[in-house]
Amino acid sequence: MATTQSLLDAAVALAQTRRKADLDDLIEELRIPSISTLPERREDCLRNARWLGDRFDAMGMKTQIVDVVEGGLPVVIADWQGRPGKPHLTMYGHYDVQPVDPVDGWKSPPFEPAVHGGELWARGAADNKGNHMACVKAAEHLHAAGGLPINVRFVIEGEEEITGPSLPRYLRAHGADLKTDTVLIWDSGMDEDGRPTLATALRGLLYTELRAKGPAVDLHSGTFGGVAPNPINTLARVIGELKDRHGHVTIPGFYDAVRPPSAEELAAWKKNDARYVQNMRRMTGAKALEGEEDFLAVERTGSRPTLDANGFIGGFTGKGAKTVIPAEASAKVSMRLVPDQDWQAILPAFKRRVSELTTPGVEISVEVIGSAPPVTCGVDHNAARVLRAAYKEAFGSETALIRVGGSIPVAVDFQEAVGAPLVISGITQADSAIHSPNEHLVIDNYHRGIEAVIRFICGLAE
Prior knowledge:
Elements: H1 4-17, H2 19-30, H3 42-58, E1 62-66, E2 75-80, E3 88-94, E4 114-116, E5 119-121, H4 125-145, E6 151-157, H5 166-174, E7 182-186, E8 197-202, E9 204-213, E10 219-220, H6 231-242, H7 263-284, H8 297-300, E11 306-314, E12 324-325, E13 328-337, H9 343-357, E14 363-372, E15 375-376, H10 382-395, E16 400-404, H11 411-418, E17 422-425, E18 440-442, H12 443-461
Parallel strand pairs: 3-6, 3-7, 7-17, 8-16
Antiparallel strand pairs: 1-2, 2-6, 4-5, 5-18, 8-15, 9-13, 9-14, 10-12, 11-13
């Protein structure tokens, strides 16, 4: 049997010689428009799941495409248990992607991958197909070089972008059968300075839809203007007053459970905050950053909770004129939560605040679209040290410890149901435009990411 070092050397050499094939395979997956939130793309999502299953089958893995929830999207599970007594690694990713709107904002068609200046442009390139394909390719190269040196499981879901129930339910139901030594959640990326990262925390999520109802039908704004309740006016006022001009959320008790960052974290953030502000202005294209002025910018994006409107619909929005007072309006509002905040405690306070702010003629209902608790994860364990060493070899850079501003809903289910240490990282650059037009991935990051995962897997075998 080959030694771990010889396997590593052979797999890295294969990755170097097969760079074009590795990129072509990623491009092939990116052509699948697996948008989970659109019912008309369901068959594409199922096709993507089968596409991944075929790759795992080719490595001799025991592959299952598991339907957990009726009408949901399946979870792809692939197991290789060929090293009895050796460590076990679970690798997570998701094959679903975000919608592409606005389509006219794309420089090239979102599902016709294109290379621009060393970057691969396509929906899903960064979130999450570039990430999970780096893991898949690492396993393929180790398989071709003589066999994986540890036991491996892939868990790739199709409902991450819609906070779907399939994978959480599967983990909760089968946690005892999914024991592992480490869970690699490969759904993050580099920091603003281009350094590899390791997450110490993820923000949670409370995502809601507000529906405002006023008159029974749309009304003429001349005949009824001045007496008829206007759901757009009221809903706009409610959203505006949920957060003041200084970025402070006005829901009573919203900040009560917020765990402050450590003195060590604050000291590190202060050293880098000016550069962070410059990078954020560059990436956002904004004239100025906003938010709570009493907190550092880097602190506001990782260790402070937020509230933001994500969409607003109401009245006549077509071309031309139609002066109506609408009968209904709706808006989507999300809150990103930090460690020790509980979305189930915040939800009733949010509903009460919305009720307080509405006007007498408008009723506003609140529906929860998605939720996830915040997650903290330690980095003082063997798997974290092995990944940092792998990054050092593959990227030539030290790893930055960060709090991730986004949410990975299933992270807490892995943590509670499976019980293994989480390692949360990834290879997408900070300005990859995930969820936006012109999403892209630095191609060199993809190839170096494949090498980093090869080194990580081999490092866990030692």
